[in-house]
């Protein structure tokens, strides 16, 4: 007798399908099992098999959770939702939440079923409908069913009421305008005794305040006293086994209340005053021996710091964070450091009291804590503690991981640049930083330190002596060697001659010219030195060829050797420098003069200066309405290694020719006619001879000239002449671009203690290729002999094209301009 095949009539149960999938040894076996079962489920759906629809949808949902496509079961979910059986509705609503979302049009088909089930007498069916609506509702469904949900928020059943309020949160998130529907019912919810409903109500109010500004204003006036009362009852209530967590009454509700109070009290003095007392009670009465209490204290601190709280309360909040720093739990310490980093600007003095504890966190083994502690230490530095904190950070720099060193050195430089008590201390500490950090120093720190050394004339010899002591026995630290090479090249003669002020306890060590030259030669020849370091060294040696005449032959022989070097940059420089020793020896001393003070241009974006500025414009220049602005960025220190590669500038129409760079000049035939009386000006232009006593304007002045702007081919040079309290600045603007600059307008502003006068310029068009210039005279009266600061603005365009506007602030004028 043959029995019928029942494999298709009795589908596999869900637990059997799970067992089969889990027993698959490979991904291919798993896919085969899933595909076979999905094929059967499709056939069952196609045959309208109502008997096993619930089981098939349940299996399909499990398959969907594994990542396989299950979209073909969406309509079956709608059929189950329409069923009268609870078991079918349960699977149908679960399938709707997993397989449908608001981006699919099919989801609106269940709107009518949801409306019917929301009003169902069975609380569990109504609960299913509320959960589904809260999960997948769209703005359209929110508007259609918002009224039904609002009715359920007034239900006497806490189970239904809680789910209805949570569903209202989703509706408000989708349609903030629905605030009007739930506004009145929200107030009554705060009088609920059920903590579940109360927690949901607080969540709904928070969502309303964040989504709707009108709701925030209304709730500030009417709800703050109620929230304070609820929080006070929680604190003062006795032990309740239903809500107690580690000895604290319902910490989840307390946290939600504190967050809502933070929203309502932000930027509102009246609401904040009402909250002050209860926040003080929470801060003092909450036990901090367990994480539950620490979580409440943390939220309390955030609330205190975010609202308009009293100063004493803010100090209490910072002290709580200070206690967190002493906790053994790493997570609590990290949270404390992170929070202190955000509140340090709000109450700097209160955070300063915990500076020692923060510094101790630098020794923590956890890298996250160590990084936050480092950032907070730099935020705490001011003019009063700069010496102590820099010593602490130097200790940290010596022992920290490699990943911290670059950030630490950069932040130390910024802090010292802002709060250094003296230039000498600043230089000493930066040398220590370079020595401690090794090769982890960023390039911008090297160039910035060179700028500081350049702008401190009284420390030139001292700095050269200190740096040479550092590299005398160790040249492995490349950033330190680069700064030392530049300084020795510029001021090595001051170091040898002893023309500097020694420290009281410093040992009197005398260096010879040969020692310095030999050390630079070793740096140049050492295979471990980077190309940049060797470029600094070869430049320094060339500078010293005139400062140390006895070593000139040794330096010349080194240049001859490096004229055949494999590195193109080193070879080019060596060839140029060799030519200076031979063909152009008569101008070598002028070429390698000391560099002028390096200018640090700062971008002027907002008028936040304490002093007001007077501004004058050229009377002959037009004032076009510019629409495009190109702000001058803070320029890095000029590339010192390429000083001799600058294009030559033709200053007058009497010069017959120009050259692109020094290499071309030195390679040109000697018989080429030179009509200018000064051969240096003809060959190199005035760009390389910034320290010439006679400028191209014919001004005899000991004040070095200064480059104010060098961007987009436009170069503006200031030359100075001082007569008693009057300073004359002779502006020279040249254009190295291939397109002429037109509509050139120069504007300047100085502090109100100065008197500025701009004389008319020689023109508004600057010819291309350095074939001409525009000149203008600036007259400044400085009766108090104060340090000069100037803000400049340039308006111009290239060949009448898009207008350009550049702004910059100049603070590094030579001291001779005002002393």
Mean pLDDT over all positions: 81
> How are strands sequenced across the largest beta sheet?
3-12-11-8-4
The number of distinct β-strands equals 12
The biggest sheet amounts to:
5 strands, antiparallel
Spans where pLDDT lies below 50 across 5 or more residues: 1-8, 601-696
Cα distance spanning the termini: 122 Å
The outline comes out as elongated
Structural category is alpha+beta
Q: So how many helices?
A: 34
What portion of the residues fall into strands of 2 or more residues? Answer: 5-15%
What's the alpha carbon Rg, rounded to whole Å? 39 Å
Share of helix, binned: 40-55%
Keywords: Cytoplasmic vesicle, Golgi apparatus, Membrane, Protein transport, Transport
Main location: membrane
Organism: Rotaria socialis
Domain GAE: 701-814
Structure report:
It is a single chain. Mean pLDDT is about 80; it is low at about 1-10 and about 600-695. Helix 7 (about 125-135) runs parallel beside helix 9 and helix 26 (about 460-470) crosses helix 27. Strands 3-12-11-8-4 form a 5-stranded antiparallel sheet, with no helix packed on it. A 5-stranded antiparallel sheet has the order 5-6-7-10-9, with no helix packed on it. Strands 1-2 form a two-stranded antiparallel sheet. Among the domains are: about 420-590; about 705-815, Gamma-adaptin ear (GAE) domain (Immunoglobulin-like). It has about 800 residues and is α+β, with helices and mostly antiparallel strands. It is elongated, with a radius of gyration of 39 Å. It is built from 34 helices and 12 strands.
């Amino acid at each position: 007798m043959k029995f019928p095949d029942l494999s298709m009539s009795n589908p596999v149960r869900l637990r059997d399908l799970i067992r089969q999938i889990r027993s698959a040894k490979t991904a291919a076996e798993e896919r085969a099992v899933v595909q076979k079962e999905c094929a059967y489920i499709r056939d069952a759906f196609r045959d309208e098999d109502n008997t096993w629809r619930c089981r098939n949808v349940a299996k399909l949902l499990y398959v969907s959770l594994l990542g396989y496509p299950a979209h073909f079961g969406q309509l079956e979910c709608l059929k189950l939702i329409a069923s009268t059986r609870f078991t079918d509705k349960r699977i149908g609503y679960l399938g709707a939440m997993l397989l449908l979302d608001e981006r699919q049009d099919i989801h609106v088909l269940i709107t009518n079923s949801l409306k019917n089930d929301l009003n169902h007498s069975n609380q569990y069916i109504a609960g299913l409908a509320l959960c589904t609506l809260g999960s997948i509702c769209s703005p359209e469904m929110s508007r259609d069913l918002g009224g039904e949900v609002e009715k359920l928020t007034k239900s006497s059943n806490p189970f239904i009421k809680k789910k209805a309020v949570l569903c209202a949160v989703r509706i408000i998130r989708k349609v903030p305008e629905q605030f009007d529907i739930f506004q009145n019912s929200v107030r009554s919810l705060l009088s609920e005794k059920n903590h579940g409903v109360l927690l949901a109500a607080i969540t709904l109010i928070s969502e309303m305040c964040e989504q709707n500004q009108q709701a925030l204003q209304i709730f500030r006036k009417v709800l703050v006293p109620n929230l304070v009362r609820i929080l006070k009852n929680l604190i003062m209530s006795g032990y309740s086994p239903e809500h107690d967590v580690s000895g604290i009454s319902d910490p989840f509700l307390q946290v939600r209340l504190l967050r809502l109070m933070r929203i309502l009290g932000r930027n509102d003095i009246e609401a904040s005053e009402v909250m002050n007392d209860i926040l003080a009670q929470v801060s003092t009465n909450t036990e901090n021996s367990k994480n539950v209490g620490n979580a409440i204290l943390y939220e309390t601190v955030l609330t205190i710091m975010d609202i308009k709280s009293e100063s004493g309360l803010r100090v209490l909040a910072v002290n709580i964070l200070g206690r967190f720093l002493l906790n053994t739990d790493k997570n609590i310490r990290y949270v404390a450091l992170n929070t202190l980093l955000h509140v340090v600007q709000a109450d700097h003095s209160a955070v300063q009291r915990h500076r020692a504890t923060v510094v101790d966190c630098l020794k923590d083994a956890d890298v996250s804590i160590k990084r936050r502690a480092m950032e907070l230490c730099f935020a705490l530095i001011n003019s009063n503690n700069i010496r102590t904190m820099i010593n602490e950070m130097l200790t940290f720099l010596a022992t920290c991981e490699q990943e911290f060193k670059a950030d630490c050195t950069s932040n130390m430089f910024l802090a010292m640049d802002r709060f250094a008590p003296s230039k000498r201390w600043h230089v000493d500490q930066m040398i220590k930083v370079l020595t401690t950090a090794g090769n982890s120093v960023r390039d911008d720190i090297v160039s910035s330190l060179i700028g500081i050394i350049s702008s401190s004339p009284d420390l030139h010899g001292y700095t050269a002596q200190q740096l040479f002591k550092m590299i005398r026995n160790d040249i492995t630290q490349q950033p330190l060697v680069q700064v030392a090479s530049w300084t020795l090249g510029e001021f090595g003669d001051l170091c040898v001659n002893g023309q500097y002020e020694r420290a009281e306890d410093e040992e009197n060590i005398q260096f010879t010219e040969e020692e310095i030259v030999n050390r630079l030669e070793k740096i140049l020849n050492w295979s471990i030195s980077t190309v940049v370091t060797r470029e600094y060294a070869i430049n320094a040696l060339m500078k010293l060829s005139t400062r140390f005449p006895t070593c000139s032959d040794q330096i010349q022989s080194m240049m001859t050797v490096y004229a055949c070097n494999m590195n193109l940059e080193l070879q080019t420089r060596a060839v140029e420098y060799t030519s200076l020793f031979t063909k152009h020896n008569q101008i070598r001393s002028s070429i390698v003069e000391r560099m002028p003070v390096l200018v640090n241009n700062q971008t002027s974006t907002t008028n936040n200066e304490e002093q007001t500025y007077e501004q004058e414009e050229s009377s002959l220049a037009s004032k076009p309405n510019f629409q495009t602005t190109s702000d001058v960025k803070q320029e890095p220190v000029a590339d010192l290694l390429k000083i001799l590669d600058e294009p030559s500038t033709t200053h007058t129409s009497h010069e017959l020719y120009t050259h692109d760079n020094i290499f071309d000049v030195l390679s040109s035939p000697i018989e080429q006619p030179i009509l200018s009386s000064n051969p240096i000006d003809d060959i190199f232009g005035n760009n390389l001879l910034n320290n010439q006593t006679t400028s191209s304007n014919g001004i005899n002045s000991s004040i070095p000239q200064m480059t104010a702007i060098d961007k987009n081919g436009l170069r503006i040079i200031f030359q100075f002449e001082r007569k008693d309290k009057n300073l004359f600045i002779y502006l020279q603007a040249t254009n190295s671009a291939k397109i002429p600059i037109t509509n050139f307008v120069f504007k300047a502003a100085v502090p109100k203690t100065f008197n500025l006068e701009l004389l008319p310029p020689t023109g508004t068009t600057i010819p291309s290729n350095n074939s001409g210039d525009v000149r203008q005279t600036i007259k400044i009266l400085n009766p108090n002999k104060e340090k000069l600061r100037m803000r400049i603005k340039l308006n111009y365009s290239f060949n009448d094209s898009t207008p350009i506007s550049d702004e910059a602030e100049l603070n590094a004028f030579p001291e001779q301009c005002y002393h």
